[in-house]
Design a protein that fits this description.
10 strands; two-stranded antiparallel sheet; TIM Barrel; eight-stranded parallel β-barrel
């Protein structure tokens, strides 16, 4: 199954996230693909990701007959504020150069000539978009126009920032990736903007950011009705409201169970119940 952004590029409906996997990244990416995942998320940010090990996994998969063009690969540009001293670019260079150097470094790490999605890891400021954000976004738009990335997007973005970007950018984002809290209506305001603009909303930390929801008796009751786990219910809910969920599990059993969430169907009433469960 796939979702399609406003630029008509398809993207798988579930994505495997590689943050915090450290030296296990190569093995876990291969395990995720063997389990059925066809979309992989990473970033050129050594504090939290090992992008080069994702590339090693892709090479190992190629030797097993799994071609690069059968996988959806998403990586990110992370500004100096989100890096340690190991920046994948000249930190003293202008921002346009930083984006290009980071992107070229990502292609080298990932052993590929293109990426399917290139994402700005987050704006430089908490409110609004400043000059730095517009310079970075213009550089990312340039990569999209060159054909080196099929989609562009932004992560860790507020509703106000996303509205500004959609109104003023030459190319609005095709994807948005945010940490998704049930207490905020599952990021309802940002999701509604995405829906209005044909942008695919990717939700991360769906389980870890909502532990109380997973333990809620209402979720347990739905899980019992469907013979599913609470995690499967949350992932299925996400899909049915138009979200693309990410999972970062290190368990192959959970990888397979997460993907099986596509086989369930929640009722309209159950979806409404989960949407407001933490409000």
């Amino acid at each position: 199954m796939t979702l399609t952004a406003y630029n008509q590029v398809p993207i798988p409906t579930f994505m495997y996230g590689t943050a915090w996997k450290k030296e296990a990244t190569k093995e876990l990416v291969q395990l995720a693909v063997a389990s059925g995942f066809t979309a992989i998320d990473t970033a050129n940010q050594l504090i939290h990701y090992q992008e080069a090990l994702v590339g090693e996994a892709l090479q190992a998969l190629e030797k097993k007959g799994i071609k690069r063009n059968t996988l959806f690969l998403q990586t990110k540009f992370t500004s100096v504020d989100g890096q340690d001293h190991r920046t994948p670019y000249d930190a003293s260079a202008d921002l346009t150069t930083q984006v290009r150097q980071s992107f070229d470094s990502s292609l080298t790490h990932l052993c590929t000539e293109y990426v399917d999605s290139y994402v700005l890891h987050g704006p430089h400021q908490r409110r609004g978009l400043g000059e730095a954000d517009w310079e970075v976004w213009a550089a990312i738009e340039g990569l999209y126009q060159s054909g080196k990335t099929k989609m562009i997007g932004i992560s860790n973005v507020t509703a106000g920032q996303l509205t500004q970007l959609c109104e003023q950018a030459n190319h609005k984002p095709m994807v948005v990736q945010n940490r998704c809290f049930a207490a905020l209506g599952w990021d309802k305001e940002v999701r509604e903007i995405c829906q209005a603009h044909g942008i695919i909303y990717q939700g991360f930390s769906l389980l870890t950011a909502n532990r109380a929801v997973l333990a809620n008796p209402k979720i347990h009751a739905i899980a019992q009705r469907l013979g599913a786990s609470s995690a499967q219910i949350i992932f299925r809910f996400a899909m049915q409201i138009g979200m693309l969920p990410l999972t970062g599990t290190t368990s192959q059993q959970h990888m397979k169970e997460d993907l099986q969430a596509e086989q369930f169907a929640l009722s309209t009433e159950e979806i409404q119940r989960i949407e407001t469960i933490a409000l």
